Amino acid sequence: MCAARRKSRAYHPDRVRDALLAQVEHVRLAAHALTPEQLARPAALPGRDVHALLAHIAGQIDAVPRLLAQPAPAATRPALDLDDWAAHPGAGVGDAPEAAGDPVEAIDAAAEELDAVLETAVREDLLLPHRFGPMRGLDFTVTRVVELVVHSDDLTRSLQSPVRLDRGALAIAVRVLADALAAKAPGNSTELRVPPFVAVQCLPGPRHTRGTPPSVVEADPITWLRLATGRATWAQTTATGRLKAGGERALGLAGQLPVLG
User: Fold this and answer.
1) Where is the Mycothiol-dependent maleylpyruvate isomerase metal-binding domain (predicted)?
2) Cα–Cα distance, 163 to 26 (Å, whole number)
3) What DSSP character marks residue 122?
4) Could you count the other beta carbons within 10 Å of the beta carbon of residue 142?
5) What mean pLDDT is predicted for residues 81-93?
6) What is the pLDDT of residues 11-53, one digit of tens each?
7) Of 3, 135, 235, 245, which shows the fewest CB atoms inside 10 Å?
8) Cβ–Cβ contacts within 10 Å for residue 22, how many?
């Protein structure tokens, strides 16, 4: 819950709005380019094909207008912040039902509905009735950016061809997941670096006050997304050199992954 803790990172409503709309458009264009054969391919996520993955994405896009249409919660303060959302078991999985019918048409319809209401949603003074507890509209919109970036990468892995990632959306997703790790494993002994977007300190142990900390873990943004969401493992990414870990406490981060519940 939103108890006293480290200061949360601030996200500017305009940047969140623009990032979400840009990533929705990238997904929409990618979906329209798919052939029936590609839609029937197994997805990178277990138990799904690309058709089902797109239906899930449509439901995630539609989650903002769906929650806005529900009665406002009786609470006057949020009970859920971004760290809570990321850590909650099943985060993202049940935020919206998967769209029925043609998933490409469903994405188009959801994108149109989102565009009509998004200006209302990206507010800190608005509470939405999230299933885990009341959540600020701006925070919930940030979670949609995370979902869209992660699932865009799922499409890339499924199709073996890149789905474009908006730079602003990628930055938001990387930072949300890094901050969630710092909240899950607080401390100052190890620094996670995901250049050029974020560096956070975590894991208990000796605190350093200047220069390079004794333990450092560094990954590129896509590798970090996949690690933080369970799409890749520590062993896989260190073996390929996409994750670099140095210092006696760096390996301790492996036991904190994935971050997204």
Assistant:
1) 22-155
2) 7
3) S
4) 26
5) 84
6) 999 999 999 999 999 999 999 999 999 999 999 999 999 999 9
7) 3
8) 18
Nearest to 148 by CA among 82, 258, 60, 261: 60
Strand, helix or coil for residue 198: strand
String of DSSP letters for 49-67: BHHHHHHHHHHHHHHHHHH
Q: Residue 95: its pLDDT value, please? A: 58
Q: Rounded distance, CA 56 to CA 98, Å?
A: 5
Tokens at 129, concatenated: 């009735």
List CB contacts of 106: < 8 A, sequence separation 6 or more: 54, 55, 58, 59, 62, 99, 100
Q: For residue 244, give Cα distances in angstroms to 64, 75, 85, 192.
A: 37, 44, 28, 10
Query: Which pLDDT value is given to residue 154?
Result: 97
**Does residue 251 have a pLDDT over 90?**
no
Q: Which residue has the tokens 């605190």?
A: 207
Tell me which DSSP letter residue 217 carries. E
**Global confidence as pTM:** 0.93
State the Cα angle at 128 between 122 and 132, rounded to 5°: 125
Cβ neighbours of residue 79 closer than 8 Å, sequence gap 6 or more = 1, 2, 132, 133, 134, 135
Scored b (16 or more CB within 10 A) or e, 220-237 reads: bbbbbbbbbbebbebeeb
Q: Give residue 101's region: left, alpha or beta (phi > 0; psi -120 to 50).
A: left
| Tokens found for residue 191 | 């620094």
Q: Please check whether residue 206 is in contact with residue 196, taking contact to mean a CB–CB distance below 8 angstroms.
A: no
Whole-number Å distance between alpha carbons of 77 and 72: 12
